[in-house]
């Protein structure tokens, strides 16, 4: 559900808040060239590692301390949106808030305290937003592609064949969930079976990766193609084998990783490698897309069609 804040100035400004299991992001973009295929420039990106999933996947609920921090953060984000003259925003919470027993109560208290209305979206909606973010780039493109978005609490996949969406699926397998031993074997079996079935029906699937971890990994691997963000699955395997034996502290020191990235980056690589291995994919394209980008594209599209 989109919310209006203030119409300020000539340039239209949209904002997205992505409340994930590991981090909470605010993305603000301004419309530079309007139209059906607009040009939007990033005005601000703020990422705060609240790590809500560590509470939820171990205790089943969000702690009072993290709730207070979430309220503080939403107040800050609202001020930032006003400063940037945001016209419209949408705030979406994903896997951690979906699973939290006290999630619905928390978002009510957040709205009362900060004025920010949060939607808890399901995995299918999350997958749709990520997919539609780059649907225009896929139309008319021949071949089979799978978007894989790995988050802290869940993994979303979208299979595209010859430019058309075949299916969107969500799995309760994510980096924070894995670190908390909360990704069940049944869910892993469901993912593996689905990947096997899709590989048989749609041969030669190429992977398109999404999420903060794969964005970081593509910058870390050797022999990457700097002209277009992509890496071989073999390079990802090599990086995974290098990172996994190291402690979190060693990963931070050796690769200059932030603490909240150093622990989740290994299970993220493992998820991508599992899917790539089953599909027989040899390359992962990483166009730096994410839920927040998709939310803003969605907001702009609705606004554009309403004005026509």
Question: What would your notes on this structure say?
Answer:
The protein has helices spanning 52-59, 64-83, 95-99, 103-114, 123-133, 135-138, 175-179, 185-201, 212-220, 233-243, 248-255, 259-262, 265-279, 291-307, and strands at residues 3-4, 13-19, 24-33, 39-48, 88-93, 118-120, 144-150, 155-161, 164-171, 206-210, 230-232, 283-285. It is of the alpha/beta class and 308 residues long. Strands 1, 2, 3, 4, 5 and 6 form a six-stranded mixed β-sheet that branches. Strands 9-8-7-10-12-11 form a six-stranded mixed β-sheet, with helices on both faces. The longest helix has 20 residues, at 64-83.
Cα end-to-end separation? 21 Å
The percentage helix is: 40-55%
The SS-based structural class is: alpha/beta
Shape: globular
> Oligomerization state of this entry?
single chain
Overall pLDDT score:
89
Beta strand %:
15-25%
CA radius of gyration: 19 Å
Number of strands: 12
Quickly count the helices: 14
- Order of H and E elements: EEEEHHEHHEHHEEEHHEHEHHHHEH
Profile the largest sheet.
6 strands, mixed
Low-pLDDT stretches? 6-10
Question: What's the SSE blueprint?
Answer:
Blueprint: E1 3-4, E2 13-19, E3 24-33, E4 39-48, H1 52-59, H2 64-83, E5 88-93, H3 95-99, H4 103-114, E6 118-120, H5 123-133, H6 135-138, E7 144-150, E8 155-161, E9 164-171, H7 175-179, H8 185-201, E10 206-210, H9 212-220, E11 230-232, H10 233-243, H11 248-255, H12 259-262, H13 265-279, E12 283-285, H14 291-307
Parallel strand pairs: 2-5, 5-6, 7-10, 10-12
Antiparallel strand pairs: 1-5, 2-3, 3-4, 7-8, 8-9, 11-12
Helix pairs in contact: 2-4, 5-14, 8-13, 10-13
């Amino acid at each position: 559900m989109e919310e209006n804040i203030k119409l300020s100035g000539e340039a239209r400004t949209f904002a997205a808040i992505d409340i994930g299991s590991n981090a909470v992001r605010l993305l603000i973009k301004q419309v530079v060239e309007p139209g059906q295929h607009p040009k939007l420039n990033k005005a601000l990106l703020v990422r705060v590692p609240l790590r809500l999933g560590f509470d939820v996947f171990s205790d089943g609920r969000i702690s009072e301390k993290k709730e207070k921090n979430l309220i503080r953060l939403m107040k800050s984000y609202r001020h930032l949106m006003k400063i940037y003259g945001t016209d419209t925003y949408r705030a979406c919470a994903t896997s951690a808030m979906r699973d939290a027993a006290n999630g619905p109560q928390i978002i009510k208290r957040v709205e009362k305290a900060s004025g920010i209305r949060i939607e808890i979206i399901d995995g299918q909606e999350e997958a749709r937003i990520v997919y539609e973010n780059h649907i225009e780039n896929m139309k008319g493109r021949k071949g089979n592609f799978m978007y894989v978005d790995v988050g802290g609490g869940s993994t979303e996949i979208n299979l595209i064949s010859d430019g058309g969406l075949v299916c969107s699926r969500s799995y309760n397998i994510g980096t924070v969930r894995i670190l908390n031993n909360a990704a069940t074997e049944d869910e892993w079996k469901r993912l593996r079976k689905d990947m096997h079935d899709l590989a048989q029906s749609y041969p030669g699937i190429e992977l398109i990766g999404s999420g903060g971890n794969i964005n970081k990994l593509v910058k870390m691997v050797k022999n990457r193609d700097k002209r277009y963000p992509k890496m071989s699955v073999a390079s990802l395997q090599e990086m995974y084998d290098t990172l996994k034996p190291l402690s979190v502290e060693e990963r931070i020191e050796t690769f200059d990783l932030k603490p909240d990235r150093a622990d989740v980056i290994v299970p993220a690589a493992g998820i991508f490698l599992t899917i790539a291995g089953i599909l027989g994919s040899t390359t992962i394209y990483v166009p730096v897309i994410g839920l927040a980008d998709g939310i803003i594209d969605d907001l702009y599209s609705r606004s554009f069609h309403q004005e026509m």
